[in-house]
Write a structure and sequence with these properties.
Structural class: alpha+beta
Strand content: 35-45%
Mean pLDDT: 84
Radius of gyration: 27 Å
Amino acid sequence: MKNYTSFILSALICFGVTVSAQPVKPLWSQSVPEGVAWQMVTSLGNYVIGTADGLAGIDPDKGTVIWRNRDVGKVAADNVKQLGSSPMLSVSTGATVYFVDPFSGQIKFDSRSAGINEIKDQYVLYQANGILISGRNAENKDILIMSSMSDGKVAWKIEDDFGRFVTANEISPSELLIVTLFYNYKVNPADGKIIWKNDVSEANQQMQNMGAFGNLMKQAAGNMAQNLDFNVQFYRHPTKPIFFVASEQEGKAATTGFTTTTSNGGPSYHTKYTAFDLNNGDRIWKKDLDLSGKTGGVYFDDKGLVVMPDDGANTKVNCYDYTTQAGQWGKKGRGVNVKGGIYGYEKVKDGFVLMSQNTSGKNFLSFLSLSIGELTFDKPVQIDGRLIYSEVTPKGLFFLTTEEINILDLTTGKLLLDKGISTAPALTAMDGNTVHIFDTREKVLKQLDKSNGALKIASVEIKFEGNESPSSIEKRGTGILVSSSQNMTLIGADGKQVYKKYFEAPREPGVIRALRYAQAVRAAYIGAAAYTASAAFQSAGQQVKEEDQASGVVLQGIGQAYGELGNAASDFAKKSFQAANARFKATQAGDNFTVMLTKQDKNNVLIKVNKDTGATEGVIDLGKDNAPNYTMDGVTGGVFYAPTNDKLTGYKF
């Protein structure tokens, strides 16, 4: 009986591959005489192809050419990328870098005509309808350019020895704050007129006072900064006209002046925090606040600036008066000791849950009371993995890390579950107070009630074919769908298996790449649907990037779209915001199927699989080519395939 059952199960597994589903009919077919070198779908859904003579934007539903850009010439796919987290395309031809509007194909910046030889950083300013670009000019001097998104021309430029661009903040339609390595500037974004300028650090002032020798030192520091990854952070108070610049530095400890090392042999760090008046640029503190450790969390409290550094082994957290810089917590105002370096915090009730990690990689949770400026737990709580999500519930702090789920009693510091549930963020699904979890240790689904801490096993052991492990779960109306790249199984409310499917993967990595990226984009949108504020979007993006760089960048881009585009007046901003909105709606409307890539009759095929039934509902044949020229929009289900060099076909799952 056992062997017979195994035979039936194997047959059902294979059935998902051999079933003859109806081929998906093409939506359109387009002749491309100049040839289709490559294709891409941006995170906001712009469908762009590279040809022998330039770029073209294609209507994904009709196949018609929306725009052509032959000015950039033939360009390789690797040289076309999204500009940071904005929808703008950065196109590099070697000698010249262009920024191209993906909605119109128009060039919004041309590095050669702008007089910039080397681009280091860029920042899209949606309110000002411009792009801020920094780098070096033909004389190898620092240059900062504002390029208009209306006509692509240079609106204004700043040529100054500022070192490197750090960030920009649109304070108002007539005020733009620019933070660089050596200077802060407040300028009018319309004409670039400098309202005020000041030195970022005391060191910069000292170099300026040293005359010609100081200028040489400054130039050397600026040259080094061009090729270094440096950590300079900007913080603006939400209500007061104050901003802070934090500069992380390696080597010389703030307390001794000598180079020191941490307990694990690595270099020590310290961070200087400088407070500025936003109205006139003046320093608020006479001296920089120099703290041991890497740049960490910052919180604006009514009493002062709460700084939570990452000092590796033992960190001091303190609240500093906005005017006097005086420390207000701990013995003689020297701060509160926290085990490990703080990498994050959660504001709850009247304090913070601090997330820290020591030099051995162990993670801890502590609770810091804002009212008394003290830690309330007898000792920090050790957890597995880095904290990703937390939520205050009647039983305490429900939290999810990269490795486990548990509930923390905020009064006693005790964990509700003796053994945390081993899992990963993608292997959890929340449905009100119920959290569905795939336990990676026990290979079963579990259900946790956040409100009372009740836990139960909700399935039998789940095993996947092809040496795969589950990579995601989601709540369906018919149960919980557990899936990986090539496996799907649906577990009903009774804990029994509704169906199980396995699709053997093609062995050629070139076949899978486009589908994987499309799935990452879709996953980013789905993950973002649970968030409502742009800050939460971008925070989630940082967390997602720890596991998936591509989808994390996409998620941050969505946050930027919602945070900066919604109230902006420019045409580009409006189009970007509308595109982001449309993407969300498409994601939510088309969540009833998934797409798998497998082999059928020795051909590579994309298969549409119904999530609720496991039925194969459509097939797109990609032929026998080991690296077919296709791309996919994971949000809308659009598939774009070039069966020959001069032909393009569009499908829709």
